[in-house]
From TrEMBL:
<dbReference type="GO" id="GO:0016594">
    <property type="term" value="F:glycine binding"/>
</dbReference>
<dbReference type="InterPro" id="IPR015424">
    <property type="entry name" value="PyrdxlP-dep_Trfase"/>
</dbReference>
<feature type="domain" description="Glycine dehydrogenase C-terminal">
    <location>
        <begin position="349"/>
        <end position="450"/>
    </location>
</feature>
<dbReference type="InterPro" id="IPR015421">
    <property type="entry name" value="PyrdxlP-dep_Trfase_major"/>
</dbReference>
<dbReference type="Pfam" id="PF21478">
    <property type="entry name" value="GcvP2_C"/>
</dbReference>
<comment type="function">
    <text>The glycine cleavage system catalyzes the degradation of glycine. The P protein binds the alpha-amino group of glycine through its pyridoxal phosphate cofactor; CO(2) is released and the remaining methylamine moiety is then transferred to the lipoamide cofactor of the H protein.</text>
</comment>
<comment type="subunit">
    <text>The glycine cleavage system is composed of four proteins: P, T, L and H. In this organism, the P 'protein' is a heterodimer of two subunits.</text>
</comment>
<dbReference type="GO" id="GO:0030170">
    <property type="term" value="F:pyridoxal phosphate binding"/>
</dbReference>
<dbReference type="GO" id="GO:0019464">
    <property type="term" value="P:glycine decarboxylation via glycine cleavage system"/>
</dbReference>
<feature type="modified residue" description="N6-(pyridoxal phosphate)lysine">
    <location>
        <position position="269"/>
    </location>
</feature>
<dbReference type="GO" id="GO:0005829">
    <property type="term" value="C:cytosol"/>
</dbReference>
<comment type="similarity">
    <text>Belongs to the GcvP family. C-terminal subunit subfamily.</text>
</comment>
<dbReference type="InterPro" id="IPR049316">
    <property type="entry name" value="GDC-P_C"/>
</dbReference>
<dbReference type="Pfam" id="PF00266">
    <property type="entry name" value="Aminotran_5"/>
</dbReference>
<dbReference type="InterPro" id="IPR023012">
    <property type="entry name" value="GcvPB"/>
</dbReference>
<protein>
    <recommendedName>
        <fullName>Probable glycine dehydrogenase (decarboxylating) subunit 2</fullName>
        <ecNumber>1.4.4.2</ecNumber>
    </recommendedName>
</protein>
<dbReference type="InterPro" id="IPR015422">
    <property type="entry name" value="PyrdxlP-dep_Trfase_small"/>
</dbReference>
Amino acid sequence: MHNEEPPIFTYSQPGKIGVNLPDAGIASTPLPTELLRQDDLAGFPELTEPEVIRHFTRISQRNYSIDTGFYPLGSCTMKYNPKLHEEVARLPGFAAAHPLQDEELSQGALQLMYELQTYLGEISGFDAVSLQPAAGAQGELTGILVFRAYHLDRGDTDRTEVLVPDSAHGTNPATAAMAGLKVVELKSDARGNVDLDDLKAKLSPRTAGMMLTNPNTLGLFEEHIVEICRLVHEAGGLMYGDGANFNAILGIAKPGELGFDFMHYNLHKTFTTPHGGGGPGSGAVGCTAALAPYLPGPRVRQRADGKYEFFTPEKSIGRMKAFHGNFGMLVRAWAYIRSMGAAGLRAVSETAVLNANYVRVMLKDIYPQAVDRICMHETVLRGQIAGASKDVRTLDIAKRLIDYGFHPPTIYFPLIVPEALMIEPTETESKQTLDRFIATMRRIAGEAVETPEVLHAAPTRAPVRRLDEVRAARQPILRYDPIAIARLQSE
Ligand SMILES: *Cc1c(COP(=O)(O)O)cnc(C)c1O
């Protein structure tokens, strides 16, 4: 572990006190004995108030966020979150609404949910929307449970397989497995599309459906999407659209019209609700009229008298989340859609695609492209720099970017691309920022050839050096633990 300042806990001394409140002059009411702590607080650091304030302020400044810098994390759409949405979400009528408040007293909140359902349905070409799920992955689980309920309801009990391309996000096969179904992997072809022959060979009366993101995780538009949907439907299966890459096609193509039956929207990606330490997420889902009866409730509908009410679809798979989803996120997504308007949303995708292609074209002579095609909102390159020794890996390039003040792109995903570097600049970055990123990537390529040891040592200018990432993930220390800290310091 590397720290310029010694850890705050080393300042701990018995008897230091963090708060000095004057005596309020009010007699205290003794707590009942059974509520009193029975043993001493052991192992807690004892610090003064300024030491505690400096500790938390310092660690808060170590966070990297979209508000501090460029964040080209592919597949995550780390775009700027307009501050207007924060104002709107803080309006007391929304922020102070209680989830158990009567419908009559919550008409504004219900109207907002109803309108958001309608807008998302319109943008994606679907008939019905549920705002329940808390994340994309939960939206996926919702969709596959709905597929299963639909098949079982028709007495179609043998449909237990879900087709998933080998380029898919890990949540897709995980979802199918969690829903109790079997994952069948599909190969990609040389142009980065689903291999149609492999698809035809694996479709069967056991096919419950297929999960696909379009554009796919190579940042490429599936050139045979209409045919893929037709083939899956002919086999009696349903098409799940992973909507994480929706930022590429807003106002240009509607998944419902391409042939998808169901999709999730990552409101925290496409619709600018904060994520990456901000959150919480929101993974609303949309579907065709045929699947609408199975959606999780409550959904919102408008009564004949114009008022809004909650209802649960008749064959609903049940709730996916307590109360009404992550409501504050729904407010922000609504504000985004209203402030952009239809033309604005289309411009979002056009600019996102333009920015990704700009980065791609400016870097592809040194960082080879995974597939030599025009990309959508993100581009997948490879960290295999011509002239650099083989022991310079994509991981080294990513860590060196941290030294230059950039959040690294997604690396080693999709799994089918060796040394993958997946860059998603988004539409909210200026050309100056993109040029600075491109120049830095080119500079790192030069370092990879001339001073590879600098890359292997990176990052050297960050609060921590290179971590043992497996250990950090498997054995995280998430709260003050004097024994664990002492052990780390002695290493
Ligand atoms: C982000 C992402 C998901 C999962 O969404 P979460 O909201 O993180 O659960 C699924 N698929 C793809 C392609 C993604 O990028």
